[in-house]
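Summary: Need help interpreting a holo structure output

Steps to reproduce:
1. Submit the protein chain below together with the SMILES for flavin mononucleotide.
2. Request a joint structure prediction with the ligand placed.
3. Inspect the structure token block that comes back.

Expected: a single structure record containing both the chain and the bound molecule.
Actual: see attached output.

Input attached:
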Amino acid sequence: MTEKNSNSKGFIGGILSLPNDSPKKTIIIAFLLCLVCSVLVSTAAVVLKSKQVANKELDIKKNILAISGLSAENGDIETAFEKFEVKVVDLETGQYADIDPSSYDQQKASSDPAQSIKLTAEQDIAKIGRRAKLATIYLLKENDTIKQVILPIHGYGLWSTLYGFIAFEGDFNTIQGLQFYAHAETPGLGGEVDNPKWRKQWHGKKAFDQDGHLKIKVIRGHVDFKMADAEHKVDGLSGATLTSRGVSNLVNYWLGDHGFGPYLTNMRSAMEK
Ligand SMILES: Cc1cc2nc3c(=O)[nH]c(=O)nc-3n(C[C@H](O)[C@H](O)[C@H](O)COP(=O)(O)O)c2cc1C
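--- attached output ---
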């Protein structure tokens, strides 16, 4: 082929006209393919980012509705979610923080050293490393009376961090439900945290005893209902002792003095007045 011919075909034409076993052709075609694919993937990631964020938020709202026993009429999650009052709590004081909940991202704050605190090994029973100073909570009210409060919780199981919610009735002690919306535990073993039968057990359990001590625990095996403290205990998942222990620890962390403990104590004291 003359140089004139090759120029007239252009760069791509020139490459394509090389024999298929040419190393130059193989390398250039592989490089161009990678370039095109990476541009496509990056464009898709940028274009779909806002949709992904919106879908994640919608999924969280769907989970909050599910845990509180509310359903979205005609699948309208946004309208159903308007029943909730969203607040931000300062975990150290247990008081509401003067901040717009829509401008606060607790998950992002958890990894920001300015907005979070590093936990000591002794404190970190949920194995989360750091926790945000502020937490977003959801109140379900009826004529100014709090009927339910939904608190975000997370912590390590066996393979993954489990993210979910625990919901309390208006006494800030009786558990309405517990639900995880993200984890990577093994389906059929630790993944049974999603089993409705297992989750149902949490309904009606008391997190604290009459003196305000945190008692809730996931035990190994089955709860003996003849025992006086059965109201504070939940069956462990069979074949998944490590995930069960992780769930017990993370619930205890988030309801304890370092989590929502001060907030729950404040709310219970306010009710007694
Ligand atoms: C492939 C595989 C996946 C497992 N996934 C889990 C899991 O998600 N959660 C868990 O607690 N145990 C899981 N286990 C079992 C643990 O290694 C461990 O044996 C178990 O937690 C002990 O629980 P048990 O005393 O109730 O049998 C898995 C084991 C294997 C082999």
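--- end attachment ---

Reviewer comment: The beta strands are 84-90, 95-96, 116-118, 130-132, 134-142, 145-156, 161-169, 175-182, 217-218, 233-234. Residues 117 and 228 are 37 Å apart (CA to CA).
Status: needs-info
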